[in-house]
Amino acid sequence: MDGALTTPGSRAVDRLIEAVRGLKPEIDSVRDELDQRRRLPIALVESMRAAGVFGLWLPRPLGGAALDLVDYVKVIEELAQIDGSVGWCASIAASYSRLAGYLTPDVARSIFNCDGTVVAGQLMATGKAIAVAGGYRVSGRWAFGSGIEHSDWTIGICIVHDGDAPRLDDGAPVERLVFFPTSTAEIIDTWHVSGLRGTGSHDYRVTNVFVPENHSIEVVTPPPTTPGPLYALPFRTVFGVAIAAAALGIARGAIDAFEKLAIARGGRGGPGQLRDTPAVQSDVGRAEAHLRSARAFLLETAQDAWDEAEAGTSDALRIRAMLRLANAQAAVASAQVVDLMYNAGGGSSVYESSRLERCFRDVHAATQHRAVSPGNYELAGSVLLGLNPGIRRL
Fold first, then answer.
1. How far is CA 168 from CA 158, 159, 163, 172, 269, in A?
2. CATH code, residues 233-393
3. What pTM value is reported for the model?
4. Separation CA 280–CA 270 (nearest Å)
5. Is residue 100 packed enough to be buried (19+ CB in 10 Å), middle (13-18) or exposed (0-12)?
6. What does the pLDDT look like over 55-73, one tens digit per residue?
7. pLDDT, tens digit, for every residue of 128-167?
8. Residue boundaries of the structural domains of the chain
9. Is the dihedral of CA 243, 152, 124, 307 positive or negative?
10. What is the SS3 assignment for the chain?
């Protein structure tokens, strides 16, 4: 990624990026298999474990990298640039490694026993947790379990019930995020989709599974058990950074793919190469401007949020609003970039053998995620205008 790196090997992020680049030949060799099998090959998963990409936000005492937000984006970008599905799976699992910072140290160690532990699941409250002695009896079905087929643990957010009645806090249902071994979940084959096919983001469900109290986390304002700005930052909004990073990487991959095509392919109806066409030159220039602008906004906002959290002076509402805005803009701009490159590629873009075809499908799947939806423009705008949309919405 141009301009993204310092001297290789000088910091943890540089070592991780070098490890990611080392995965490229293996990822390239299984690209068709990702789509056909709709999951990551186990051999690739093991290579990713060894590279440390699943523990980017895992606390350092547990062997993780505990990267700041900016460095996290750089690593995921690099991986999603190679392949969208691979980058997405890594980003989801790595973002969930951050949850260790809200568990007691012994429980965190039992779940995240290495930086290669993979946690799957999603953050919508479609489960039910009935309070019982020592914990909860959990039942429910969730969608979009990215990487669940190669995961060790799975999460789900549940509405807490006392008997038949939902537990309320200030009139709102109480939600808890629960951990359960993936072996206790039924994986439902639902992932028949256009983009990000290789992520295996199937539905999953559990029925009457016991989850100990200390294997669950409060959702709205979870108290961290690990010190530091990474775990002091807003819970749901920081997750959006993981989605935005993957989208940016896919967009960079599209520009790279088109530049190679423009050099290799003849011009439109005339002599010379495709790159000699003024309209094509304009498209590449606009794509580069869109991507770099959105990326700079995300990195600047992420750094501001980090600095304020580190200083203990953060305005939680404003941080949530601005990060949501930057996440959404990164996703929207990434889709615009891919569309420019896909259209510039002409008929070549429609073939399954084309990287542009893959990037087109993947980025438009990624931008459907709620964490980067256009609704975040309204949320951010309301805060910037001095209104309070409610902390639960952010």
1. 13, 9, 13, 5, 67
2. 1.20.140.10
3. 0.93
4. 14
5. buried
6. 999 999 999 999 999 999 9
7. 999 999 999 999 999 999 999 999 999 999 999 999 999 9
8. 12-106, 119-218, 233-393
9. negative
10. CCCCCCCCCCCHHHHHHHHHHHCHHHHHHCHHHHHHHCCCCHHHHHHHHHHCHHHCCCCHHHCCCCCCHHHHHHHHHHHHHHCHHHHHHHHHHHHHHHHHHHCCHHHHHHHCCCCCCCEEEEEEEEEEEEEECCEEEEEEEEEEECCHHHCCEEEEEEEEEECCEECEECCEECEEEEEEEHHHCEEECCCCCCCCHHHCCEEEEEEEEEEEHHHEEECCCCCCCCCCHHHHCCHHHHHHHHHHHHHHHHHHHHHHHHHHHHHHCECCCCCCEHHHCHHHHHHHHHHHHHHHHHHHHHHHHHHHHHHHHHHCCCCHHHHHHHHHHHHHHHHHHHHHHHHHHHHHCHHHHHCCCCHHHHHHHHHHHHCCCHHHCCHHHHHHHHHHCCCCCCHHHC
Beta bridge partners of 17: none
Distance of CA 189 to CAs 149, 205, 330, Å? 10, 11, 31
Do 12-106 and 233-393 share a fold? no
Largest CA distance in the chain: 77
The CATH number of domain 119-218, selected from 3.30.390.50, 2.40.110.10, 3.40.50.150, 3.30.70.3450: 2.40.110.10
Q: Which residue has tokens 């532990």?
A: 117
Q: How far is it, in rounded angstroms, from Cα 53 to Cα 93?
A: 9
Read off the pLDDT band of 303 (50, 70, 90).
very high
Give me the CATH code for the 12-106 domain, please.
Answer: 1.10.540.10
